[in-house]
Amino acid sequence: MSEPDPTLNNADLARAQLREAMAQLASGDRGALERIYQATSAKLFGICLRILGDRGEAEDALQDVYVSLWQRAKNYDPERGSPISWLAVFARNRAVDRLRKGKVRSGAVAVDEAAGIPDRRPLADAVLESSERSARVHHCIGTLEERQQDAIRTAFFEGTTYAELAEKRGVPLGTMKSWVRRGLARLKRCLEE
Amino acid sequence: MTEPELPEREVLAAEYVLGLLDAEARLNARGLMASDAAFAASVAYWEDRLAPLLGAIPPAAPGSDVWERIQAALDQNDLADEPVIEVLALRRRVRQWKIATGFAAAAAVVLAFLALPATRNPGPDALPAQQIATADPLVASIPIGDTPLRLGVTYLPDREEMLVSASGLTADGVHDHELWLVTPGEDAKSLGVVVPGEERRMSVDEALAQRIEAGAELVLTREPLGGAVPGTDAGPMVASGKLQAART
Q1: Distance of alpha carbon A87 from its chain centroid, rounded?
Q2: What CATH number is given for B88-245 in this structure?
Q3: Nearest-neighbour CA in chain B from A6: distance (Å)
Q4: Are B203 and B110 in contact (CB under 8 A)?
Q5: What confidence score (pLDDT) does residue A145 get?
Q6: How many angstroms away from the CA of B210 is the closest CA of chain A?
């Protein structure tokens, strides 16, 4: 093994290690799955917990995520982007699926419970946050009207349906849809700029 | 200010990604992803663009038993159905094996999908014995995946016989493992099905025997019971190695 390139920052290193582990995973390496779990489970659990709002459900979802990952390692194409983003989206999708199965009640979001691990902040986070894309999407969401931002953020972070969102904000369903859709059109235009 | 709305399908893709759809609509969107490439691309677009927002969610420690539960679930899956695993990049790399002389990266591609054109060994009864009495045995010790297990192969040129020790393999009742000789620029040649957990003597016909020399590549694949069906591609490669002169 060669010395790590000193110009690599932690995020680059974490990304490279994760990429390598993902490739090893695809060759049926359980050790690789364990390395991926160690590097990403806190991040992915945070996501599941945020969506599901219940530790037990979030742990079940997390288990589901890694078992599916093992079975479907082939679905990750290393050329499509950063593995941590892919995993984060994957975990969020599984959590929303679980929410839709009706096993848990949405809205019971215990954000405080996801308050983080103070002294061991996973590198995965730095990787997610470091990209230009991150700055772009934050900027673009910031250009939306307040109520558009609120609807889009609430849906994204809590897996809230149109109907739930309309009820929460006390507006007709059609109004909520129209806010969101106009917000999405504007968001897309900004993302493309 | 009014914005022109996005095309309907694109709105649906964004709504799916945001999680706005109810259970039924979400399921329909999934179906559409499978059947409509443009829709799937829209979904990927929104997922990629919105993914960085997930960075804002604070991490949290799952219970310490979750990893154990994952392992238990995997063990159960392995018993039920050994996962067939492939990855695009690896597969591309493996495809180049025919033009590569060395197969040096063999260890890196263990378990990757390998489409070997199958050519059957005509069978053990079709061979006249040929004596090459002075030739030394050739051996190969082939690691199986990342396990400590090895497939032991000993080739006895003077007897045109191969001894294959497969004590590291276990029968799953659904698959057999087949051993192939790989020579540069030619189709892989079957050396026969390996019997899990046993040491087996395999005859090698004369035409094949002439190609077996130090440095010859051996590849083990997973096949349906009874071995690869003639005329079809061989199954996924599970291990590979080289024959070398035995040091006695």
Answers
A1: 7
A2: 2.60.40
A3: 25
A4: no
A5: 95
A6: 33
Residue B205 has pLDDT above 90, yes or no: no
Query: Which chain B residue's Cα is nearest to A27?
Result: B111
Is the predicted pLDDT of residue B204 greater than 90, yes or no?
Answer: no
* Residue of A73, A92, A97 with shortest CB distance to B87: A73
The mean per-residue pLDDT over the stretch B21-43 comes to 86
User: pLDDT band for position B242 (50/70/90)?
Assistant: confident
SS3 B140: strand
Nearest Cα to Cα of residue B60 among A154, A150, A70, A95: A95
Residue B225, classified by CB atoms within 10 Å of its CB into exposed (0-12), middle (13-18) or buried (19+), is exposed
Residue holding tokens 């902040």? A121
pLDDT given for residue A17 in this prediction: 84
Distance from CA of A43 to the nearest CA of B (A): 4
- pLDDT at position A8: 53
Residue B28 scores a pLDDT above 50: yes
Q: Would you kindly state where each structural domain of chain A is located, as residue ranges?
A: 1-130, 131-193
* Structural domain spans, chain B: 8-60, 88-245
Spell out the CATH class of A1-130. Answer: mainly alpha
Query: pTM for the whole thing?
Result: 0.57
d(CA B27, CA B15): 13
CB within 8 Å: B145 and A28: yes
In Å, how far is B8's CA from the nearest CA of chain A? 10
Cβ separation of B58 and A114 shorter than 8 Å? Answer: yes
Q: Check B57 against A157: CB less than 8 A apart.
A: yes
Q: Indicate the average pLDDT of chain A.
A: 80
CB contact under 8 A, A41 and B4: no
Are the beta carbons of B66 and A41 separated by less than 8 Å? Answer: yes
Secondary element (H or E) of residue B151:
strand B150-156
Find the closest chain B residue to A78 by CA distance: B89
Q: For the domain made up of A131-193, give the CATH fold.
A: Arc Repressor Mutant, subunit A (1.10.10)
pLDDT for A19 beyond 60: yes
Q: Which of A24, A184, A191 to mutate to test the interface with B (most CBs of B within 10 A)?
A: A184
Residue A184 — pLDDT band, cuts 50, 70, 90? Answer: very high
